[in-house]
Automatic annotation (TrEMBL):
The keyword Nucleotidyltransferase does not apply. Pfam families: PALP. Signal peptide: none annotated. NCBIfam families: ilvA_1Cterm. It comes from Lutzomyia longipalpis. This is L-serine deaminase. Belongs to the serine/threonine dehydratase family. Its cofactor is pyridoxal 5'-phosphate. The keyword Nucleus does not apply. Keywords: Lyase, Pyridoxal phosphate.
Amino acid sequence: MATYMVQPVKLVDVKAGQFSNGLNGHSATNGVNGTHGTNGIHEMKNGLNGYAEEKPEQATNPVEDEDLEIIEDVADPHCVAENPVKISFQDITSAAFLIKSGIQCTPCQRSHLSDMTGMELYLKKEFLQFTGSFKERGARYALLMLSEEEKRQGVISASLGNHAQGLSYHATRLGIPVTVVMPIAAPIMKIQKCRSYGANVIVKGESMSEAKKIAMSIGKRRNLVYINGYDHPHIMAGQGTIGLEIVEQMGMPDAVVVPVGGGGLIAGVATAVKAISPQTKIIGVESDKCPSFTRALEHGGPILTPNMATLADGLAVPTVGYNAFATAVPLLDKMVVVREEWIALAILRLVEQEKCVVEGAGAAGLAAIFSGHLNEFKGKKVCLLLCGGNIDTTIFGRCLERGLAAEGRLLRFCVTVSDRPGGISELCRELAALGVSIKDIMHERAWIRDIFSVEVKVVCETSDWAHSEQLRKVLTEKYSHVVFNDVPMAIAN
């Protein structure tokens, strides 16, 4: 396997005081306007490559209908199955030096959930990046490494949202034309964000695979550089800078838990962390609705894996990257697959305990802990990577309800009561006496055999698992016909 090495970076017109900073990017000083870090990103002139950042402008030269026709067998020269590229620690340190002026060094803080989980838990909050996810790191580095001619021609990519946003944001500020192809299933919020960042957005394709084919076909016709969102070597190196920050901020963790989609994030983070702290365990987490990396491990290489709709839409990649797989597998210690209910519960817990709003992919690491897959790290120092916070508002509400149901705090039941005056009100009094909050209630008579009875369907909220069990006991003793509609894994802890 080939090893991808970044060429030494030539510094252009960097004056004293223009950048004074270590790898962590806490106080990158802009010699142009005196602002700090990413606060001055909109007006900053990049002293590392002499390329001026500009205000967002809407993309020109819209794509014509004939450009959307798929050209079969268009190859990505950076992602070749027969000759996968493995990134090195030097690639990541080079990336860290280049992107530090335009990327947030996000906090890595001890979690309030430490006592609940029995671990010394730290949260790396990548959802605090400007576009809401870690994808900015790789996108910026890949853009900075383009030749001047490639920058002039522009770039194109296919993405479900987060990579598209990061690429759109940084390409526009670097003055590079950018086109993104997003499948029709992509969240509307993410599509609108990409347009607001100045990208030419094409919503086309029934799946991520089809959107990628369309993007690569357009790139071939228009001579645009296709930047794979998870398998391009520069993308992986950029994502790996998170690993450098984790070790710098919290020392040597016993384990780092990383959500896995296409594999670029875990490949970069594992390369960085293992180079500094070989004893640290690298744990990957996937949703059971899109276990592409797990299937690749079973198969011995990337393989097309049909994905189903999932709360962790950012992880829904049908085929993991060839470069990412080759880089990550030798460094991976464990792979975990979690159910959707655990992801919903993790989203709920992060909102309630940490006041953090994250998407499904960002909550996958905590879901792995709640599901009991990582009990061997009880009492140890564990870092969870909260990789993104771009969750659709309608999906967010459903996630919270699903999390409450998974925990047993939101119950739905059907009970048959007497169809006489006061029959339903008596049921409501019983619930009120228990301190149960009724969220929804309805009744029906037409489909009940006993014409003197009525079936009442109730959705209610309790304070905790014990409270729910008390409600079950009281209703079961009082009424002869009670049916509770539990989610598959209501839990007692």
